[in-house]
């Protein structure tokens, strides 16, 4: 069995996700890591195709650890792709994740910023609604990874400055919970099985991400936490995922869903071989 692992070409070697790609290649056989720039998208005959410029051997499946939705869709026309383009699209856009899941699951309160073509300021009445979340208020890019592009605005002036700094990118607003700052629960799911969870804690930053300096320890989920994580994973059609929950045991809420999660910190904290579980599950599906 041959598997191509597609990843983002512009990641630096220090990025957490590069460790995942390296670990997968070390754990498997006939795995070929391929940056997304190995493919050129073009018209061929009457079809739009993704052509492999390197002409590597045809894979039996593709592990897709990038967010290039068009490329994933085109590869799906020829091979099984995990995660699917649909699942990646729903997970990568935090506003879309909220739209799909908030009606059925407890989620952190969210107000999407108005759609905009360029850097602009919403009208005062809109900002009044955002201020009702309280200060500091979290300003978060709809598409971002590793805890980057997540900011705190301490007051109205800082909020307006941050909105303008977000530029053309879609973003959203969420309340800031001082008691929950720098803490969350990351749940790893492969197939339809929770393989484990960690509690992430960061004493120096309100973001719990390990990439932002957080530390991880194994965590035992209660039934409510398990139910929320599995429901989110299933609703978005994911094969493997990292589900982020608030750290509350009594009233857990979904923060976000990650389709191409970095999990080396999870492996180190728990001793669970995530790469092996993903590869074994893909092999069982083929």
TrEMBL record:
ATP-grasp domain residues: 103-283
Gene3D superfamilies, sorted: ATP-grasp fold, A domain, ATP-grasp fold, B domain
PROSITE patterns named among the record's database cross-references: ATP_GRASP
Record keywords: ATP-binding, Ligase, Metal-binding, Nucleotide-binding
Enzyme class: ligase
Enzyme Commission number: 6.3.2.-
Keyword Translocase assigned: no
UniProt keyword Ligase, yes or no: yes
UniProt GO cellular component terms: cytoplasm
InterPro entries in the cross-refs: ATP-grasp, ATP-grasp_RimK-type, ATP_grasp_subdomain_1, Rp_bS6_RimK/Lys_biosynth_LsyX
Signal peptide: none
One Gene Ontology MF term: ATP binding
PANTHER family: BETA-CITRYLGLUTAMATE SYNTHASE B-RELATED, RIBOSOMAL PROTEIN S6 MODIFICATION PROTEIN
Protein's name according to its UniProt entry: Alpha-aminoadipate--lysW ligase lysX
Taxonomic source organism: Aedoeadaptatus ivorii
Recorded name of the encoding gene: lysX
């Amino acid at each position: 069995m041959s598997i191509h692992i597609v990843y983002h070409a512009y990641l630096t070697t220090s990025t957490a996700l590069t460790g995942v790609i390296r670990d997968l290649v070390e754990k498997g056989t006939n795995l070929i890591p391929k940056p997304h720039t190995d493919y050129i998208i073009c018209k061929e005959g009457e079809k739009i195709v993704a052509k492999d410029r390197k002409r590597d051997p045809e894979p039996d499946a593709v592990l897709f650890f990038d967010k290039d939705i068009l490329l994933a869709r085109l590869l799906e026309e020829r091979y099984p792709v995990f995660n699917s383009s649909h699942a990646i699209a729903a997970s990568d856009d935090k506003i879309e994740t909220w739209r799909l899941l908030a009606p059925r699951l407890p989620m952190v309160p969210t107000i999407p910023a108005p759609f905009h073509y360029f850097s602009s300021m919403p009208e005062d009445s809109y900002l009044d609604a955002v201020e009702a979340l309280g200060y500091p208020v979290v300003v978060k890019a709809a598409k971002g990874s590793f805890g980057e592009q997540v900011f705190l605005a301490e007051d109205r002036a800082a909020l307006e400055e941050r909105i303008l700094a977000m530029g053309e990118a879609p973003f959203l607003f969420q309340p800031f919970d001082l008691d929950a700052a720098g803490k969350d629960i990351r749940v790893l799911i492969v197939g339809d099985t929770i393989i484990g969870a960690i509690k992430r804690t960061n004493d120096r930053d309100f973001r719990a991400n390990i990439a932002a300096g957080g530390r991880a320890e194994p965590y035992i989920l209660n039934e409510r936490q398990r139910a929320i994580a599995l429901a989110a994973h299933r609703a978005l059609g994911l094969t493997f995922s990292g589900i982020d929950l608030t750290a509350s045991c009594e009233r857990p809420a979904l923060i976000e869903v990650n389709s191409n999660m970095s999990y080396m910190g999870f492996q180190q904290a728990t001793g669970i071989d995530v790469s092996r579980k993903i590869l074994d599950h893909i092999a069982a599906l083929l």
